[in-house]
Amino acid sequence: MRTEIEAPLLLGVLENTFQREGKSAHEVVFVFQARFVDRAFYELLEVPFYEEGWDGGLTWESLDGFRASARPLYPEGLLDLLAN
After folding, report:
1. Total tally of structural domains belonging to the chain
2. How far apart are CA 38 and CA 49, in angstroms?
């Protein structure tokens, strides 16, 4: 399942270092705000997602849910970036 986005706006760039499968890894994450062209995507309980090594979909989550719990949101700094 594919869709298009519109009105992308760069919110910020985060650098992240982490361990994956026992090895050090590094990524640079460009965080964008955008809208789905097909508004039906907002009604889905789970958005299909395909990436090597990932088996599952994406779910909509409230930022308040991350603020109110010890559950992490990665990469570090993303919650603060989205809150602004």
Report:
1. 1
2. 16
